[in-house]
Amino acid sequence: MIKISNKITSLWLLLLIIFIFSEAKAQYKLSVEELFEKGIEHSIVIQSTYLKVEIANDKNSLAKNKRLPDVAVTGQFGYVGTPTIFDKDLSFVKHTSAPDWRQNYQLSAVQPLYEGGRINNNIKRSELEQELAQLSLTQDKANLKIWLVGKYLDLYNLYRQRAIYSINIDEAKRRLQDIRKMREEGMITSNDVLRSEIELTNFDLSYQETTNGITLVCQQLAIALGMDEDLLYEPDSAFLNLKMNMDEGIDNYIETAYHDYPEMRIAKTNIALAKNNLDITKADFRPSLSLQFGNTFQRPLPNTSPVQDLFIDSWGVTLNLSYKISSLFDRKHSLSVAKTQISLQQLEEEQQKQNIRGIVKSAYLKHKEALMRIKALETSVEQANENYRIVNKKYFNQLSILTDLLDANAMQLDAELQLTAARTNAVYTYYQLLNVCGRL
């Protein structure tokens, strides 16, 4: 019976081990480079912006094609009824003979010679729209990177928190064993044991909540990166060793943002578009000159009486000059609208500059604060560790109560968690600064 019982116990242990390993998820080391590469590759927003860039490129090609001749080929083939001739009083005279079928084939080519700058300005407009599409793509990529960095740092923070809780759980278990021995020796009451057990349970719950948080963030990243949702992704700890250059002054960051921040560059391009629209408006008040070549092959002979059932082939070259006189009535208001749009875009650029100064300064100061916070919390962690060591020694020498020991442990845990959050926040604020400067 003992052998059978041992076999059953071994079988249950084996099944338990298999279950644990089946539940455990495989881990994948995720680098920052792969994070950005996969994120950009699978982002729906980025894919949409790429399509907008492609549309802008095609529109530019279409605008350039306007320089080429406009070639048209037409063909007509139809039945012709018998003509009837009437007298002045509409009395019937006779039916004339005519061919039953009419055919008309034409080839024409019109080459624009002068359009008042309309064609060239439309090409320039399409090029500016290309630039806007590229700037939107750059901005969308930067926004995506900021989001990915935030999730990446959240994941790192959760892993660090779980490691801290794991250390505290081990310490709480060891402390509980010592407290139970002291209770058996009658040195303390059962209340200390109960409170220590409650603290250990709270640590276990926090550990499990952190583990669940890791699973959720990993799934969010997996969806965004188009990767396996069943994997646990582990961030590269070297990411926190990023060299954050803060030697530049705030004025240099602002000047860089004026030139490189996508929204600022978009504002400048909008001004160029408004000026280009003014040039296109002026072109509408200028004459158009074009050269036309045509060839016609038709039957029967036109404008002959009686109608002759013969083919005729004719060609010609024409110089066309046109001027839209009615545009003079709209000139004043059209130019006023175009000029007002330029002024409006210039005001928006100035407003954007004011916003950038505030955004850059805010990001700069927040990053400075984050770096200062790290130094302060590093000192706090050292002090909290020393305080716990002293109180722990006093408690087991019965020179302090359990409340003091648990408070010291809570202070130590809080300081370590705050330091972890501060380190990840410093990296995030640095990336925010790079983003608003157009360097991300």
TrEMBL record:
UniProtKB keywords: Cell outer membrane, Coiled coil, Membrane, Transmembrane, Transmembrane beta strand, Transport
A GO molecular-function annotation: efflux transmembrane transporter activity
Protein's cellular compartments: Cell outer membrane
Pfam families assigned: OEP
SUPFAM superfamilies on file: Outer membrane efflux proteins (OEP) (SSF56954)
A GO term from the CC aspect: cell outer membrane
Top-level lineage group: Bacteria
Chain segments annotated as coiled-coil in the UniProt record: 337-394
Family statement drawn from the similarity comment of this UniProt entry: Belongs to the outer membrane factor (OMF) (TC 1.B.17) family.
Protein name (record): Outer membrane protein TolC
Species this chain originates from: Dysgonomonas alginatilytica
